[in-house]
Amino acid sequence: MTAGEAHWRAWGQRAGRADAALHPIAGAPNYRKALNALWQPHSRALPPGLSASACYAAAQGYAAGYGQASGLGAADWVLLPTERTIAAVVCAMNEEATIAGVLRELQRLPLDELYVIVNGSRDRTLERVRQCPDAIVAYYPEALGHDVGRAIGAKLSSADIVLFVDGDFVVPAERLAPFITAVSNGMDVALNNITPYLPPFSRWDQVTTMKRFLNVTMGRPELKANSLTAVPHALSRAAIERIGYRELMVPPKAQVRAMLGGLQIGAPAGVNVIAANRQRGTNRGRLNPVSRLIIGDHAEAIELAMAERGERVSFPDTMRQRKMIRKGEGACR
Protein backbone atom coordinates (compact mmCIF):
# COMPACT_ATOMS: atom_id res chain seq x y z
CA MET A 1 0.00 0.00 0.00
CA THR A 2 1.38 3.40 -0.98
CA ALA A 3 1.46 6.38 1.37
CA GLY A 4 -1.42 7.96 -0.55
CA GLU A 5 -3.55 4.83 -0.31
CA ALA A 6 -2.78 4.56 3.41
CA HIS A 7 -3.91 8.18 3.85
CA TRP A 8 -7.26 7.53 2.18
CA ARG A 9 -7.77 4.27 4.03
CA ALA A 10 -7.32 6.13 7.33
CA TRP A 11 -9.70 8.83 6.08
CA GLY A 12 -12.29 6.15 5.34
CA GLN A 13 -11.81 4.50 8.73
CA ARG A 14 -12.52 7.75 10.54
CA ALA A 15 -15.67 8.30 8.48
CA GLY A 16 -16.80 4.71 9.08
CA ARG A 17 -16.35 4.93 12.85
CA ALA A 18 -18.29 8.20 12.95
CA ASP A 19 -21.16 6.79 10.88
CA ALA A 20 -21.39 3.68 13.07
CA ALA A 21 -22.41 5.92 15.96
CA LEU A 22 -24.70 8.17 13.92
CA HIS A 23 -26.31 5.67 11.53
CA PRO A 24 -26.71 2.12 12.92
CA ILE A 25 -27.83 -0.45 10.36
CA ALA A 26 -28.55 -3.34 12.73
CA GLY A 27 -32.21 -3.53 11.67
CA ALA A 28 -31.63 -3.26 7.93
CA PRO A 29 -32.79 -6.19 5.76
CA ASN A 30 -29.56 -6.12 3.74
CA TYR A 31 -26.52 -4.97 5.73
CA ARG A 32 -24.22 -4.66 2.73
CA LYS A 33 -26.66 -2.51 0.78
CA ALA A 34 -27.32 -0.38 3.84
CA LEU A 35 -23.61 0.18 4.44
CA ASN A 36 -23.05 0.88 0.76
CA ALA A 37 -25.78 3.53 0.89
CA LEU A 38 -24.07 5.18 3.87
CA TRP A 39 -20.79 5.18 1.93
CA GLN A 40 -22.19 7.14 -1.04
CA PRO A 41 -21.84 10.71 0.36
CA HIS A 42 -18.23 9.96 1.30
CA SER A 43 -17.56 8.43 -2.10
CA ARG A 44 -18.84 11.58 -3.80
CA ALA A 45 -16.62 13.68 -1.51
CA LEU A 46 -13.43 12.05 -2.81
CA PRO A 47 -11.35 14.40 -4.98
CA PRO A 48 -12.00 14.18 -8.74
CA GLY A 49 -9.23 12.29 -10.48
CA LEU A 50 -8.26 10.26 -7.43
CA SER A 51 -6.80 6.92 -8.51
CA ALA A 52 -8.96 3.81 -8.45
CA SER A 53 -6.64 2.19 -5.91
CA ALA A 54 -6.93 5.18 -3.56
CA CYS A 55 -10.74 5.19 -3.92
CA TYR A 56 -10.79 1.49 -3.12
CA ALA A 57 -8.54 2.05 -0.09
CA ALA A 58 -10.95 4.71 1.20
CA ALA A 59 -13.94 2.38 0.76
CA GLN A 60 -12.05 -0.48 2.38
CA GLY A 61 -11.15 1.76 5.31
CA TYR A 62 -14.76 2.90 5.68
CA ALA A 63 -16.04 -0.70 5.86
CA ALA A 64 -13.33 -1.62 8.35
CA GLY A 65 -13.97 1.44 10.52
CA TYR A 66 -17.72 0.93 10.55
CA GLY A 67 -17.26 -2.75 11.34
CA GLN A 68 -14.87 -2.08 14.21
CA ALA A 69 -17.14 0.50 15.81
CA SER A 70 -20.42 -1.37 15.29
CA GLY A 71 -19.33 -4.94 15.84
CA LEU A 72 -20.49 -5.98 12.36
CA GLY A 73 -18.10 -8.19 10.42
CA ALA A 74 -17.83 -5.65 7.63
CA ALA A 75 -14.05 -5.42 7.28
CA ASP A 76 -13.93 -7.46 4.06
CA TRP A 77 -17.06 -6.04 2.42
CA VAL A 78 -16.42 -4.37 -0.93
CA LEU A 79 -18.30 -1.09 -1.19
CA LEU A 80 -19.03 0.44 -4.58
CA PRO A 81 -19.60 4.03 -5.77
CA THR A 82 -23.15 3.38 -6.94
CA GLU A 83 -26.70 3.53 -5.65
CA ARG A 84 -28.07 1.44 -8.51
CA THR A 85 -29.43 -2.04 -7.91
CA ILE A 86 -27.07 -4.93 -8.65
CA ALA A 87 -27.66 -8.60 -9.45
CA ALA A 88 -25.23 -11.45 -9.98
CA VAL A 89 -25.91 -14.52 -12.10
CA VAL A 90 -23.86 -17.68 -11.56
CA CYS A 91 -24.04 -20.72 -13.83
CA ALA A 92 -22.94 -23.99 -12.23
CA MET A 93 -22.71 -27.60 -13.35
CA ASN A 94 -20.73 -30.09 -11.26
CA GLU A 95 -18.89 -27.34 -9.36
CA GLU A 96 -19.05 -28.69 -5.80
CA ALA A 97 -15.35 -27.91 -5.23
CA THR A 98 -15.57 -24.22 -6.14
CA ILE A 99 -19.15 -22.95 -5.90
CA ALA A 100 -19.04 -22.12 -2.19
CA GLY A 101 -15.97 -19.93 -2.74
CA VAL A 102 -17.60 -18.22 -5.73
CA LEU A 103 -20.67 -17.36 -3.66
CA ARG A 104 -18.59 -16.16 -0.70
CA GLU A 105 -16.87 -13.59 -2.90
CA LEU A 106 -20.18 -12.43 -4.38
CA GLN A 107 -21.62 -12.01 -0.89
CA ARG A 108 -18.89 -9.46 -0.15
CA LEU A 109 -20.52 -7.16 -2.72
CA PRO A 110 -23.63 -5.00 -2.08
CA LEU A 111 -25.92 -7.18 -4.19
CA ASP A 112 -29.69 -6.88 -4.36
CA GLU A 113 -30.15 -10.22 -6.14
CA LEU A 114 -28.06 -13.38 -6.42
CA TYR A 115 -29.20 -16.04 -8.90
CA VAL A 116 -27.56 -19.43 -9.23
CA ILE A 117 -28.52 -21.54 -12.23
CA VAL A 118 -27.68 -25.14 -11.33
CA ASN A 119 -28.04 -27.49 -14.28
CA GLY A 120 -26.99 -31.01 -15.16
CA SER A 121 -25.10 -31.54 -11.90
CA ARG A 122 -24.35 -35.04 -10.72
CA ASP A 123 -22.33 -34.00 -7.67
CA ARG A 124 -23.19 -31.93 -4.57
CA THR A 125 -23.33 -28.54 -6.30
CA LEU A 126 -27.01 -28.00 -5.48
CA GLU A 127 -26.43 -28.90 -1.84
CA ARG A 128 -23.57 -26.40 -1.61
CA VAL A 129 -25.63 -23.64 -3.23
CA ARG A 130 -28.56 -24.17 -0.88
CA GLN A 131 -26.24 -23.45 2.03
CA CYS A 132 -26.00 -19.84 0.80
CA PRO A 133 -28.93 -17.94 2.37
CA ASP A 134 -28.82 -15.15 -0.22
CA ALA A 135 -28.99 -17.37 -3.29
CA ILE A 136 -32.11 -17.68 -5.43
CA VAL A 137 -31.70 -21.09 -7.06
CA ALA A 138 -33.02 -22.18 -10.44
CA TYR A 139 -32.46 -25.93 -10.67
CA TYR A 140 -32.55 -28.01 -13.84
CA PRO A 141 -31.70 -31.72 -13.57
CA GLU A 142 -30.65 -31.80 -17.22
CA ALA A 143 -27.73 -29.90 -18.76
CA LEU A 144 -29.00 -26.73 -20.43
CA GLY A 145 -26.07 -26.21 -22.77
CA HIS A 146 -23.52 -23.43 -22.90
CA ASP A 147 -24.70 -19.93 -21.95
CA VAL A 148 -28.38 -20.85 -21.63
CA GLY A 149 -28.12 -20.32 -17.86
CA ARG A 150 -26.96 -16.74 -18.40
CA ALA A 151 -30.07 -16.00 -20.44
CA ILE A 152 -32.28 -17.52 -17.74
CA GLY A 153 -30.55 -15.51 -15.01
CA ALA A 154 -30.88 -12.30 -17.00
CA LYS A 155 -34.61 -12.92 -17.44
CA LEU A 156 -35.10 -13.65 -13.74
CA SER A 157 -33.25 -10.52 -12.65
CA SER A 158 -34.70 -7.04 -12.32
CA ALA A 159 -31.62 -5.09 -11.20
CA ASP A 160 -30.11 -2.12 -13.03
CA ILE A 161 -26.75 -3.87 -13.35
CA VAL A 162 -26.25 -7.62 -13.85
CA LEU A 163 -22.88 -9.28 -13.26
CA PHE A 164 -22.28 -12.69 -14.85
CA VAL A 165 -19.81 -15.21 -13.45
CA ASP A 166 -19.26 -18.95 -13.70
CA GLY A 167 -19.15 -21.40 -10.84
CA ASP A 168 -15.95 -23.17 -11.84
CA PHE A 169 -13.38 -20.69 -10.51
CA VAL A 170 -13.28 -18.14 -7.71
CA VAL A 171 -12.75 -14.46 -8.56
CA PRO A 172 -12.08 -12.11 -5.62
CA ALA A 173 -14.80 -9.50 -5.11
CA GLU A 174 -12.23 -6.74 -5.64
CA ARG A 175 -11.66 -8.03 -9.18
CA LEU A 176 -15.41 -8.11 -9.90
CA ALA A 177 -16.09 -4.58 -8.66
CA PRO A 178 -14.69 -2.72 -11.73
CA PHE A 179 -17.25 -4.35 -14.04
CA ILE A 180 -20.13 -3.14 -11.87
CA THR A 181 -18.60 0.31 -11.47
CA ALA A 182 -18.09 0.67 -15.22
CA VAL A 183 -21.76 -0.04 -15.93
CA SER A 184 -22.79 2.32 -13.13
CA ASN A 185 -20.71 5.01 -14.85
CA GLY A 186 -22.50 4.62 -18.18
CA MET A 187 -21.09 1.55 -19.92
CA ASP A 188 -23.74 -0.88 -21.16
CA VAL A 189 -21.54 -3.90 -21.84
CA ALA A 190 -18.47 -4.33 -19.62
CA LEU A 191 -16.32 -7.10 -21.10
CA ASN A 192 -13.50 -9.01 -19.48
CA ASN A 193 -10.21 -7.69 -20.90
CA ILE A 194 -8.43 -10.98 -21.60
CA THR A 195 -5.99 -9.41 -24.07
CA PRO A 196 -3.06 -9.06 -21.62
CA TYR A 197 -3.24 -12.79 -20.90
CA LEU A 198 -3.11 -13.95 -24.53
CA PRO A 199 0.00 -15.40 -26.18
CA PRO A 200 1.54 -13.74 -29.26
CA PHE A 201 -0.79 -13.63 -32.27
CA SER A 202 1.09 -16.45 -34.02
CA ARG A 203 0.01 -18.77 -31.20
CA TRP A 204 -3.66 -17.79 -31.03
CA ASP A 205 -6.19 -20.59 -31.36
CA GLN A 206 -9.15 -20.49 -33.73
CA VAL A 207 -11.57 -19.24 -31.08
CA THR A 208 -9.42 -16.25 -30.14
CA THR A 209 -8.90 -15.42 -33.81
CA MET A 210 -12.66 -15.48 -34.38
CA LYS A 211 -13.25 -13.14 -31.43
CA ARG A 212 -10.78 -10.64 -32.87
CA PHE A 213 -12.17 -11.04 -36.39
CA LEU A 214 -15.71 -10.32 -35.21
CA ASN A 215 -14.69 -7.10 -33.46
CA VAL A 216 -12.70 -5.90 -36.49
CA THR A 217 -15.58 -6.78 -38.80
CA MET A 218 -17.94 -4.69 -36.66
CA GLY A 219 -15.58 -1.71 -36.79
CA ARG A 220 -14.46 -2.12 -33.17
CA PRO A 221 -10.78 -3.16 -33.45
CA GLU A 222 -9.98 -1.54 -30.09
CA LEU A 223 -11.92 -4.34 -28.39
CA LYS A 224 -9.25 -6.76 -29.67
CA ALA A 225 -10.21 -10.34 -28.73
CA ASN A 226 -12.50 -9.36 -25.86
CA SER A 227 -15.89 -10.99 -26.02
CA LEU A 228 -19.11 -11.76 -24.18
CA THR A 229 -18.05 -15.41 -24.34
CA ALA A 230 -15.69 -14.71 -21.42
CA VAL A 231 -16.80 -14.10 -17.86
CA PRO A 232 -16.88 -12.11 -15.72
CA HIS A 233 -18.77 -9.42 -17.55
CA ALA A 234 -21.61 -7.06 -16.67
CA LEU A 235 -24.60 -5.67 -18.55
CA SER A 236 -26.88 -2.72 -17.96
CA ARG A 237 -30.62 -3.27 -17.83
CA ALA A 238 -30.86 -1.25 -21.06
CA ALA A 239 -28.41 -3.65 -22.72
CA ILE A 240 -30.34 -6.73 -21.63
CA GLU A 241 -33.59 -5.27 -22.97
CA ARG A 242 -32.01 -4.08 -26.22
CA ILE A 243 -30.16 -7.34 -26.89
CA GLY A 244 -32.98 -9.64 -25.77
CA TYR A 245 -32.83 -12.59 -23.40
CA ARG A 246 -32.73 -15.25 -26.13
CA GLU A 247 -29.73 -13.68 -27.84
CA LEU A 248 -27.72 -13.98 -24.62
CA MET A 249 -27.64 -17.74 -25.25
CA VAL A 250 -25.27 -16.99 -28.16
CA PRO A 251 -22.78 -14.48 -26.70
CA PRO A 252 -21.11 -13.35 -29.97
CA LYS A 253 -24.55 -12.71 -31.47
CA ALA A 254 -25.50 -10.75 -28.35
CA GLN A 255 -22.34 -8.70 -28.78
CA VAL A 256 -23.24 -7.89 -32.38
CA ARG A 257 -26.77 -6.91 -31.27
CA ALA A 258 -25.21 -4.55 -28.73
CA MET A 259 -22.99 -2.99 -31.39
CA LEU A 260 -25.83 -2.65 -33.88
CA GLY A 261 -27.94 -1.05 -31.14
CA GLY A 262 -25.35 1.63 -30.42
CA LEU A 263 -24.72 0.49 -26.85
CA GLN A 264 -21.61 1.59 -24.97
CA ILE A 265 -19.17 -1.33 -24.97
CA GLY A 266 -15.77 -1.53 -23.29
CA ALA A 267 -13.39 -3.77 -21.37
CA PRO A 268 -12.75 -1.99 -18.05
CA ALA A 269 -10.86 -4.76 -16.24
CA GLY A 270 -9.20 -8.09 -16.81
CA VAL A 271 -9.47 -11.46 -15.07
CA ASN A 272 -7.22 -14.25 -16.30
CA VAL A 273 -9.82 -16.86 -17.14
CA ILE A 274 -7.44 -18.54 -19.57
CA ALA A 275 -5.30 -19.87 -16.74
CA ALA A 276 -8.26 -20.44 -14.40
CA ASN A 277 -10.61 -22.16 -16.85
CA ARG A 278 -11.41 -25.66 -15.65
CA GLN A 279 -10.34 -28.40 -18.05
CA ARG A 280 -13.12 -30.80 -19.03
CA GLY A 281 -13.45 -33.52 -21.62
CA THR A 282 -15.33 -31.16 -23.94
CA ASN A 283 -12.80 -28.29 -23.92
CA ARG A 284 -9.49 -30.12 -24.36
CA GLY A 285 -7.60 -30.12 -27.62
CA ARG A 286 -7.34 -27.65 -30.47
CA LEU A 287 -10.75 -28.23 -32.09
CA ASN A 288 -12.73 -29.64 -29.20
CA PRO A 289 -16.56 -29.59 -29.03
CA VAL A 290 -16.64 -26.31 -27.09
CA SER A 291 -14.30 -24.63 -29.59
CA ARG A 292 -16.45 -25.77 -32.49
CA LEU A 293 -19.56 -24.46 -30.74
CA ILE A 294 -17.99 -21.04 -30.12
CA ILE A 295 -16.72 -20.80 -33.70
CA GLY A 296 -20.22 -21.62 -34.91
CA ASP A 297 -21.63 -18.94 -32.61
CA HIS A 298 -19.31 -16.40 -34.23
CA ALA A 299 -20.43 -17.49 -37.69
CA GLU A 300 -24.03 -16.85 -36.57
CA ALA A 301 -23.01 -13.42 -35.30
CA ILE A 302 -21.32 -12.50 -38.58
CA GLU A 303 -24.39 -13.69 -40.50
CA LEU A 304 -26.51 -11.33 -38.38
CA ALA A 305 -24.12 -8.45 -39.01
CA MET A 306 -24.23 -9.04 -42.78
CA ALA A 307 -28.02 -9.21 -42.74
CA GLU A 308 -28.23 -5.88 -40.92
CA ARG A 309 -25.36 -3.94 -42.53
CA GLY A 310 -24.79 -5.62 -45.86
CA GLU A 311 -22.36 -8.29 -46.93
CA ARG A 312 -19.27 -6.13 -46.32
CA VAL A 313 -20.49 -5.00 -42.86
CA SER A 314 -18.04 -2.20 -41.91
CA PHE A 315 -15.57 -2.55 -44.81
CA PRO A 316 -15.88 -0.10 -47.74
CA ASP A 317 -15.67 -1.59 -51.24
CA THR A 318 -12.60 0.27 -52.52
CA MET A 319 -11.54 -2.20 -55.24
CA ARG A 320 -14.79 -2.73 -57.15
CA GLN A 321 -17.79 -0.44 -57.59
CA ARG A 322 -20.35 -3.23 -57.54
CA LYS A 323 -23.20 -0.73 -57.47
CA MET A 324 -22.44 0.09 -61.11
CA ILE A 325 -23.70 -3.36 -62.09
CA ARG A 326 -27.14 -2.45 -60.82
CA LYS A 327 -27.01 0.92 -62.59
CA GLY A 328 -25.93 -0.79 -65.80
CA GLU A 329 -28.82 -3.22 -65.63
CA GLY A 330 -31.21 -0.30 -65.34
CA ALA A 331 -29.63 1.54 -68.28
CA CYS A 332 -30.05 -1.47 -70.60
CA ARG A 333 -33.79 -1.72 -70.12
UniProtKB/TrEMBL annotation:
Cofactor(s) named in the record: Mg(2+)
Residue ranges occupied by any Glycosyltransferase 2-like domain in the UniProt entry: 89-214
CDD domains membership: Glyco_tranf_GTA_type (cd00761)
Entry annotated with the keyword Magnesium: yes
Recorded GO MF terms: glycosyltransferase activity
Protein name: Glucosyl-3-phosphoglycerate synthase
Catalytic activity: (2R)-3-phosphoglycerate + UDP-alpha-D-glucose = (2R)-2-O-(alpha-D-glucopyranosyl)-3-phospho-glycerate + UDP + H(+); an NDP-alpha-D-glucose + (2R)-3-phosphoglycerate = (2R)-2-O-(alpha-D-glucopyranosyl)-3-phospho-glycerate + a ribonucleoside 5'-diphosphate + H(+)
One Pfam family from the record: Glycos_transf_2
